[in-house]
Amino acid sequence: MAEVIEGHGGELALAAARAFGVNEMFTLSGGHVFPLYDAAHKTDFPIYDVRHEQTAVFAAEAVAKLQRRPGLAVLTAGPGVTNGISGLTSAFFNASPVLVLGGRAPAFRWGAGSLQEFDHVPLVAPVTKYAATVGDTDAIAGEVRAALTEALTAHRGPAFLDIPLEVVFSSGEAAAPGEPAVPVLEADPDEVAKAASLLATAQRPVIIAGSDVWGGNAIAELRAAAEALQVPVFTNGMGRGALPPSHPLAFAKARRPALNEADLVCVIGTPLDFRLGFGEFAEARVVHIVDAPSQRATHVEPVVSPAGDLRRILAAIADWPGDRADHTEWISGLRSAEDAGKARDAEAMAAETDLIKPARIYGELRKVLAPDAVTIGDGGDFVSYAGRYLEPAQPGTWLDPGPYGCLGTGMGYAMGARVTYPDRQICVLMGDGAAGFSLMDAESLVRQGLPVVMVVGNNGIWGLEKHPMQAMYGYDVAADLQPGLRYDDVVKALGGAGETVEKAAEIGPALERAFAAGVPYLVNVLTDPGDAYPRSSNLA
Fold first, then answer.
1. Where do the Thiamine pyrophosphate enzyme central domain residues begin and end (predicted)?
2. What is the DSSP string of 18-36?
3. Are strands 398-399 and 25-27 parallel, antiparallel or unpaired?
4. What letter does residue 250 receive in the DSSP assignment?
5. Per DSSP, what are the bridge partners of residue 172?
6. Which residues pair with 73 in a beta bridge?
7. pTM attached to this predicted model
8. Is the peptide bond before 155 cis (omega within 30 degrees of 0)?
């Protein structure tokens, strides 16, 4: 006879989530979801609470990204759920398997005007892979299992369930959760063979690897394929660090000549979006390798686009037995461009100027960050510099908002990263604009003993807007913040620590104090408002 579990709705939901490796809950307290708290409390299941629901979802997303398993956020009904929608949307764009369990006003009184009565599902359905209301207590465990299976099935993404008040508070029973069964998509072998042949025989090939290579646990296979065919590799998103910076095929600074001169660009596990010039690479042919057919580009026509499990596709490419071109000269030329770019960057990162340049901050950070430090970018202009000057030494150590570009991820990502890695350095990089979105949740970090280092590049403006608006119109509006604002004092008032830095020579010692402090610590660096990250347009 099949084993049966019994309990109230919260106990059934948590039992099903545990079977998928969920080990913690991020939430903001709300009466509609008390049974979930009760289930957690009675089983020593960690609860981390926040000051804004978006932080709970971002924390769950950080766990999902870093650990490649579901993260759980529990939100109360109505505004609790709607406050979390930016986090859900970011998870959708980032292919993060987040489960949001929402409270819901009682079904038996629906339409009478109960507190926070709102039908969430139509609102969240466009930004989730699975969205449903659970109408029966006995169905809760099965619905959680179905939602998590869909969240983990490529192309991965978030799932949402809300549970009416009387359903989650009632008792029921369900079959005991078994091992998760997540389907694996096999790519067309002919398409894989064509991609391998094109990559091997191109004279000037380039690989660009993105977040899905990490999310699909295909880092080793990517390295094997690149090494077998001797193809230079560039990365973005959580693909960063897939090859360590010292690897002879790892490149970052030679991107422009590589993409301008390549005859074949193979993009793996990332969309052909604005970050990649929408897939237009001079005269190069494009191979687009994705984890599911839904991710194939529709605005360009790749010569081939295998869709399926990235580990298997890349393993097959690594084992390609056919002809291959000699890429030695191509790689050598790119290495010269790479070395020249690194020399320019080194000069910028050492700049002694009265007004601190953002590059100098990253030059000092590189000296104190451990190889396994988790670095989190939450901002626009300031974080653009991070993408240029910081080179993750290991995969799975870089978190940024992703292509949706949502500010406010910083404190949630920091919480999820600290929960994941209690003993690593966790460093959040924020523009002063981004700091306004979530800095209050430094209190959540303080209260729950979760130390992180926050570095604010404080130029007193919205850099991505002020400079382009000046260039376009000759003036700017709604683009100024208070110059010299003491964000460190905010964190101090919330129970943490921090300091303001005005001289370049003071940055390094301040960072050393921050990482040694053992509490949430904000280093507020006053930077040059006239220094803008170079780009043709931030509106692309």
1. 192-317
2. HTTT---EEE---GGGHHH
3. unpaired
4. B
5. 7
6. 26, 100
7. 0.96
8. yes
